[in-house]
Amino acid sequence: xxxxxxxxxxxxxxxxxxxxxxxxxxxxxxxxxxxxxxxxxxxxxxxxxxxxxxxxxxxxxxxxxxxxxxxxxxxxxxxxxxxxxxxxxxxxxxxxxxxxxxxxxxxxxxxxxxxxxxxxxxxxxxxxxxxxxxxxxxxxxxxxxxxxxxxxxxxxxxxxxxxxxxxxxxxxxxxxxxxxxxxxxxxxxxxxxxxxxxxxxxxxxxxxxxxxxxxxxxxxxxxxxxxxxxxxxxxxxxxxxxxxxxxxxxxxxxxxxxxxxxxxxxxxxxxxxxxxxxxxxxxxxxxxxxxxxxxxxxxxxxxxxxxxxxxxxxxxxxxxxxxxxxxxxxxxxxxxxxxxxxxxxxxxxxxxxxxxxxxxxxxxxxxxxxxxxxxxxxxxxxxxxxxxxxxxxxxxxxxxxxxxxxxxxxxxxxxxxxxxxxxxxxxxxxxxxxxxxxxxxxxxxxxxxxxxxxxxxxxxxxxxxxxxxxxxxxxxxxxxxxxxxxxx
Length: 488
Known about the structure:
Order of helices and strands: HHHHHHHHHHHHHHHHHEEEHEHHHH
Binding site for Ca(2+) 1: 233, 236, 238, 240, 242, 251
Enzyme class: oxidoreductase
Active site: 232
Radius of gyration: 53 Å
CATH topology of the domain at 343-466: Peroxidase, domain 2
Binding site for heme b: 355
Binding site for Ca(2+) 2: 356, 407, 415
Strand order of the largest sheet: 1-4
Low-confidence stretches: 29-190
Number of helices: 22
């Protein structure tokens, strides 16, 4: 009886221990290849098994391993008689490296507590060597690789520290591109600037000034002609030297431009600059500089001008009449023409002051007179000074092509005498005389007549706006080699 009861207890205990070992083995390694290795651990378990005197002890172990009821083979008792297997536990922890529970033997109750304490840093002696190897491959795939070698015992902590630096650089990189786009707005080389030729042709202003001074000394009418030229050029398709091009159907052939002069001065300045700075300075810039120097030569203010214009490729006579100011215009008509160019009524009065130098042919102001019953010429406008009217008729009696100074008594000096003459009824052209017949423009005329400084100060701004009309820069237009023709 004792021998049979011992055999039954042996079978029961071996079955229970085998089922527990199989459950632990399945939890330790999912791979089927490693499952048979826990079998040698049976003797160690058998030593602990005889302690319970009743089957109540294995009962709590059974729910911990759910697969126990499935595996109840009785042949598992065969490995019981093998005594030499107690050395197997030393080999068991090696294959169980992927999980912390493998370090503790199966039957011992503290084994389930080992995995809970394994991830914690305070238990490095037993669990630190095995887990140190598995966490290392985990941080290697993500970008923060440099931080992995520093902490070996605790892998998850360094993996979180390098992550913020990887996220912070991206916001700094996109912030960089806006700055260059913002720093380099529209190409600065295309903008007009007083220093446009500072590097390419630093002597441009000196060269033009010398040519203008020389020509004006020989011919006192040159300053007035150069100043008139810049008006006729800039008002028709912008300041692009289109008025200089010769040929059939060009702006130069329109009747309004037949009386223009000073072309030889522009050509001479261009020849000089081509010798010093070939294919660099545009003809349109030379016109602006020559007009500025003409004012300075006759006593007017020397104003800074911006440069960098390019010359037009087209010049059409059909563009002249639609843009030029006719001598028969009223204040409203002139104001509308100026407004279409972006110029104000104040610009109109100020730039009309350019008539303080220069002269006009008798045919230009003939419409201001009519014959009377006796065949004599009388002024159409009753506001014209009678003495001045007589002087004009006397000057034009001999020849209709005679020239009369636009500013009576001061046609060779750039000053405010022009405005004083307007208030006195001595305006030569009708466009001059009507400025005192409008309340707004008359007030400005009176202010300039009282203060030459006020006129000079206003001239600087209005001249800058005039010479900025419709300029061509960059790839628009060209720099002509000869101002009278486009490049072939």
